[in-house]
Amino acid sequence: MDNFWQKLKKPIIGMAPMDGVTDAAFRRIICEYAKPDVIFTEFVPVDGICAGARVLTEGLIYGANERPIVAQIFGANPKNFYKIAPFLCELGFDGIDINMGCPDKAIMKQGGGASLIANPKLAKEVVINLKQGISDWAKGKKIEDFGLPQNIVEYAMDSMLRLGGERETIPVSVKTRIGVDNNSLQQAKDWAKHLTEMGLANISIHGRTLKQMYFGVANWETIAEMAKIIRDTDAKITILGNGDIKNITEAKEKALKYGLDGALVGRAVMGNPWIFSGKETSAKEKLTVAIEHAKYYEMIFTERPFINMRKHLAWYCRGFEGASEVRAQLMKINNARECEEVIMEVIVKL
Asked: Is residue 10 situated within a structural domain?
């Protein structure tokens, strides 16, 4: 197996996957200005892909400059995790990450995301089936023989980015939380033990429980307790912490302080593609890149409504006089051309 996790220089500072945020256009901007050590896609529903929903493949678009690039997926049907494995391998991803931390009610209702923390038996079955699918593909089983819909098979064959040479297995990782209930250290420790039994290459731990959602403060002490259990069981597993990191300096400090291999930066990247360089930028630079980002969005997502891009534009409009007025204007635009017109009027006055 080509386990890229073991080749990364430590501390590993990556960008956390965020639904509706870390899409292909945003990741392209990130890699252009300050590339992190590892990147994840937005999370993609396993069941949807296996049902033939080709539109969902937009979440798996990536560029070669993003490597190592990890596909993040979610679901709770072990059989579908087996089916999707060759699809992701054919698309050339460097690894596959299973989301076991999302607190969204719709995903929880299906048994996926953070609900898997309370169902370790199912969580292990999901991992086992995904790894078996990867293994069978690496041994030569054709993607057509996994039971995927024909349109999904055709997409994989038409979009193949897999590097030449022999097929190799790719590493499986998990992104999760410290538990379900608040202030339950024992639950966190028990979950850590279960995670060590899954044969994972990397475990990323968000320092909040399911019940906390995104409120309160991330508990890095509990992340450290889980990391110790994982490392004492299998020292080869890399462990990343996540939660409330504001800049790259803090990311490195937390990794060192809590005995981790690295950290993932989440919400602090919004509107700040320079975060992984530590560079301070002017309002003019931010707004110029906002235009570039809007153009990438239109170029990559020809069928998506531009309204989805507006929140990104709002994030660029912070920290300068008149930012709120510019945000208000950008919330009304419908394409990259209008975005450029609004922003250029502002830039000439800065």
From this structure: yes
Omega within 30 of 0 (cis) for the link into 11: yes
Q: Which of 31, 102, 317, 339 is catalytic?
A: 102
- Give the SS3 label for residue 98: strand
Nearest-angstrom CA–CA distance, 162 and 158: 11
Show the CA angle centred on residue 220, arms to residues 18 and 281, nearest 5°: 55
Annotated catalytic, 102?
yes
Q: Say if 163 falls within a structural domain.
A: yes
Helices and strands in the chain: count of H runs, count of E runs: 13, 8
pLDDT tens, position by position, 12-59: 999 999 999 999 999 999 999 999 999 999 999 999 999 999 999 999
Three-state DSSP at 95 gives strand
Do 292 and 183 sit in the same domain of this protein?
A: no
CB atoms within 10 A of CB 166: 6
For residue 14, the enclosing domain spans 4-269
pLDDT digits (tens, 9 = 90+) for 100-112: 999 999 999 999 9
Q: What is the pTM of this model?
A: 0.96
> Which tokens is 232 given?
């004492």
Q: Let me know if residue 278 belongs to a domain.
A: no
